[in-house]
Design goal:
InterPro entries: Aldolase_class_II_sugar_metab, Aldolase_II/adducin_N, Aldolase_II/adducin_N_sf. By secondary structure, the chain is α+β, with helices and mostly antiparallel strands. The protein contains 8 helices and 8 strands.
Amino acid sequence: MSDRDIRNERAGRLVEAAEKLFAAGVMSHSGHANLSARLDGERLLLTPGYVRGLRPEQLATVGFDGQVLEGELQSVSAEIIAMHSVVYKARPDVGAIIHTHSPSATAFAVAHRPLPCRTEPMLRFGQAEDVPVVPWGPRGSDVSVRGIADVLQQRPTTAAVLLANHGLLAFGPDSAATAHLVVAIEESAEAEIAAAAIGGAVDFPPGAQEAVRAAIARAAS
């Protein structure tokens, strides 16, 4: 495909992912989020500062260095380019990133508490471990970006991080997979909070991850 075809295809999928998040009810009251998709080793597509009613042609093409190459960004999105690009640089396998203020996941971020992996959807959609917390830093600042880089280095298999006092940052091979993970994390955070009222959540038994992988493989065969 041409560069234009690739851009259009990935922009369309980002818009679909945003629509899925709203339909699933995992967005904050404000609907704030930002989504991106990798174009290549130096460029990404980024939502312009809003996601509700988003159209593919409204996405901006941005360099990992922060330069806007095509389209326009509101200042609210220009601030977070580095937050996305640091993940793409650290994880060559990541094709899309979603940042939300999903209420229950954000509760864990505000409490500075890692979110345990205790629900099967988290296992199935790529987060078979606790979601770690990145120490707080001003939004888009060097402090915040360095914190994300440090946690990704310490936790090389995590597919999400909680930004302390801020929200959720999730990443995956493509927009659809990342949206599924955001939904799974928010549902798991809701379940953790609800379970606390009836005695607390319980860890999976040993071998749970392997059992889920085997079940997925059998269904796909």
